[in-house]
Write a structure and sequence with these properties.
The complex is a heterodimer of chains A (about 475) and B (about 260). With about 475 residues, chain A is of the alpha/beta class. Chain A contains 14 helices and 19 strands. In chain A, helix 8 packs across helix 9 (about 160-165) and helix 12 packs across helix 14. The longest helix of chain A is centred in the N-terminal third of the chain and has 15 residues, at about 45-60. In chain B, strand 11 and strand 12 (about 230-235) form a beta hairpin. Classes of the chains: A alpha/beta (about 475), B alpha/beta (about 260).
């Protein structure tokens, strides 16, 4: 990393920093100038620039983690563009959209008027997003909920952002979190005030601003005392992005008696069948149960990305707080996933539940990695973990890496794990009842994932079911 | 219900089949007409189950030679699921467990798939529930079967009843029941056999693969075939089953060998 510093120090001032501000896109590469440019472009307060610079300086001293069970070529961080103004949508009409994508929309049952938006066609004519968004926003404002982009939050509610950002995932937490803290461009902000139960599911899909969230997304959700919210991230429709590296940070804060439910369906481009291309998804997601009786629940359905490296975690600080993690991770072709959770029990009588379902097909590799830590003061803490793997075909792999650290003798920790395989005999049984292989696999997989799908909001669950079937199309028989 | 003028449902001519390169079926001939009940008996390893699975289209069994027509169609041009949709049913000797998949959901999908392939109306979940409960009542099956995962944790007898329930729902033209009697106590046997009898009509037919004569006290066959070494070596009526029960299989094998010697 010292060469980066050298470059920075020795680089002549040739590009003309001032004119760069007017430009739409920053030059490739990462240095303090890039960070200052981002901050200036976004009209950020001084403290946020300091936050970014501190994170960047820390990042320079860190090394990329080597422990995940994934393989990929070394990332050149100087070959990435870190700031780019929102670009207009590229496609002019649905005729220009990849027919394969349209077929997928068809199968998923994505409503007609939403297909264009998802496919990246300029939609202002067809899709009246403004009116939908406005109604939505007003309804939330009536009960005092703030739901906006993180940039808007920095502008309109700086005291809240300053108070909570980095309080769960500190800027120097890990390599990618540090990188994100230095260069994040946008993301979501959500604040549920004391005693308010959010009247609807909050979805990024309806997150008012049209700016693309970019590759370094930052999300911050705060539920004050007695508040509750259910937040949906992502979409079952495939998401294409020219940026290969994605390093997001998501922070959740739950105060006394607050409840946050965070659901994700991730279907980013996974590369082609030979494993070429595809997104690297290196995410840090963590929730802090700060108050007593607080409750944070993560539900994720991960089906996309070439590489997934993600551990939505809960820090159970408040007494009697509860953390949950429900996950389905599906890998096919050459995808690699190293995903799981961390449950850190600090307060007394804290409880956590982990249900992880890994499905591997093709030549993919799927690892569960989970940590359950019971601290010395966590009297009466309890954890239940269940990690099941299912293999489809004989060229894929599944691994389970559970880490359990218990420092309090009153704690109870249970771990169960199973591995199963969709076999010829199971499929033949379906066939002999008139059911073809693809439907059979879909039904077996949905049965396998039932415990997780039950946690998803109703509509999401239906879509997720279809999505898994679609992702496995052609992998059997 | 012997009916020489009944419609031919299944016609097997010179069928040979291999498993992992080993020839198990060595030339089978069999004709099954509507309204008939056939029993295929024979010692362990004679190829009975292989015959049943090869007809249903199990991928592990490779058909080498011969021809099989099912209601006039070449069976080997059809995928396993198409055979089921066309009305061929295999009752499994060892029904497979499918954890997490509810029995009712499984049966409804099977029913609707088969119905739509036959150009008939599908049923929505509520209609199907009424439909399946009626069948269950007829077959004396506990309603708790519906909520349980397919065959998961079922006793041997429960699994066999579940097979007969599926048969009742799919209304096959030809049911091949592979050792449906094995593992059943006498009460369960009576119930299962009673169910099969209720499902048989002059328009459909049944092939029972069995070791024991016992089942044939309840489901009375029109023909009894003895299989040995991958061939049907003797065919008779229901009295043959009784004779096999008292004398064993050796004499049939000896008779067959003598016959082959003479003709050679």
């Amino acid at each position: 990393m010292s060469t980066v510093l050298d470059n920075l120090v020795n680089r002549p001032y040739q590009h003309g920093f001032r004119t760069e501000i007017e430009a739409e896109t920053a030059p490739k590469g990462l240095n303090e100038e890039t960070i200052r440019l981002i901050s200036t472009k976004k009209n950020e307060p001084e403290w946020l620039l300091e936050f970014r610079l501190k994170a960047y300086r820390h990042w320079l001293t860190m090394e990329e983690p080597k422990w995940p069970n994934v393989k990929y070529p070394k990332i050149d961080f100087q070959d990435i563009i870190y700031y780019s103004a929102p670009k207009p949508k590229k496609l002019k009409s649905m005729d220009e959209v990849d027919p394969e994508l349209l077929r997928t929309f068809e199968k998923l049952g994505v409503p007609m008027n939403e297909r264009a938006a998802l496919a990246g066609v300029a939609v202002d004519v067809i899709f009246d997003s403004v009116s939908v968004a406005t109604t939505y926003k007003k309804k939330l404002a009536d009960v005092g909920i703030i739901f906006c982009s993180i940039s808007e939050a920095v502008r309109d509610h700086p005291e809240l952002v300053r108070k909570y950002m980095g309080s769960v995932v500190p800027p120097g937490d890990n390599y990618y979190a540090a990188l994100n803290s230095a260069v994040f461009t946008d993301g979501s902000f959500c604040f549920i005030p004391k005693g308010v139960k959010c009247p609807m599911e909050l979805s990024t899909y309806f997150r008012i601003n049209t700016e693309s969230s970019g590759q370094f997304e930052r999300t911050l959700i705060i539920a004050e005392e007695g508040a509750s919210v259910s937040y949906l991230e992502g979409c079952t429709a495939p998401k294409f992005d020219s940026n290969q590296l994605h390093a997001a940070v998501v922070e959740l804060v739950a105060l006394d008696n607050a409840r946050i439910k965070y659901s994700t369906v991730q279907n980013w481009y996974a590369g082609d069948e030979k494993g070429v291309g595809g997104i690297y998804n290196f995410v840090t997601k963590r929730g802090l149960c700060r108050g007593v009786n607080s409750h944070i629940s993560w539900t994720q359905v991960e089906t996309g990305s070439a590489i997934t490296w993600k551990y939505p975690s809960c820090v159970l600080l408040g007494d009697n707080s509860v953390g949950e993690f429900y996950s389905v991770a599906l890998t096919n072709h050459h995808q690699q996933a190293d995903t799981g959770t961390k449950m850190v029990h600090i307060g007394r009588n804290t409880k956590s539940t982990i249900v992880s379902k890994g499905i591997s097909a093709g030549q993919s590799n799927n690892s569960y990695r989970g940590l359950v830590r019971i601290g010395p003061k966590a009297e009466g803490a309890r954890n239940y973990s269940q990690c099941d793997s299912m293999l489809i075909g004989s060229k894929c792999g599944a691994n389970t890496f559970p880490y359990i650290q218990v420092q309090n003798a009153t704690a109870k920790v249970e771990h169960e794990a199973t591995t199963s395989k969709i076999g010829e005999d199971q499929l033949f049984y379906f066939q002999s009842r008139g059911i073809g292989n693809e439907e059979a696999v879909s039904m077996i997989i949905n049965g396998f994932c039932k415990d997780v799908f039950q946690q998803l909001p109703m509509e999401f669950a239906v879509e997720a079911t279809k999505l898994l079937g679609l992702k496995l199309e052609g992998s059997v028989g | 219900m012997l009916n020489p003028n009944g419609k031919v449902l299944l016609e097997v001519r010179g069928l040979t089949a291999t498993v992992a390169g080993v020839e198990i079926l060595k030339g089978i001939d069999l004709t099954v007409r509507a309204g008939e009940i056939h029993a295929i008996m024979g010692p362990n390893g004679s190829g009975k189950s292989t015959f049943a699975k090869a007809l249903a289209g199990h991928p592990a069994y490779e058909v080498a030679k011969g021809e099989v027509r099912f209601e006039g169609r070449n069976l080997f041009d059809m995928s396993a699921e198409d055979r089921a949709r066309a009305g061929l049913f295999l009752g499994f000797q060892y029904p497979v467990e499918i954890p997490g998949v509810s029995n009712s959901g499984f049966m409804r999908l099977a029913y609707n798939t088969v119905q739509s392939a036959r150009g008939r109306d599908e049923l929505d979940p509520l209609e199907f529930d009424d439909f399946v409960r009626e069948k269950m009542k007829m077959l004396e099956i506990d309603p708790s079967f519906l909520e349980r995962s397919v065959n998961e944790g079922f006793s041997g007898g429960e699994k066999k009843r579940n097979e007969i329930l599926q048969m009742a729902i799919l209304e096959p033209r030809l049911a091949i029941l592979d050792e449906t009697d094995s593992g059943l106590d006498i009460d369960a046997l009576r119930v299962v056999a009673g169910g099969v009898n209720r499902l048989l009509t002059p328009d459909n037919a049944c092939v029972l693969v069995t070791h024991y004569q016992r089942l044939l006290n309840y489901i009375v066959p029109d023909y009894v075939h003895v299989m040995e070494g991958g061939r049907i070596i003797k065919t008779g009526d229901k009295s043959l089953a009784l004779e096999l029960e008292s004398r064993g299989y050796d004499w049939v094998v000896d008779e067959y060998k003598a016959r082959v010697k003479v003709s050679a």
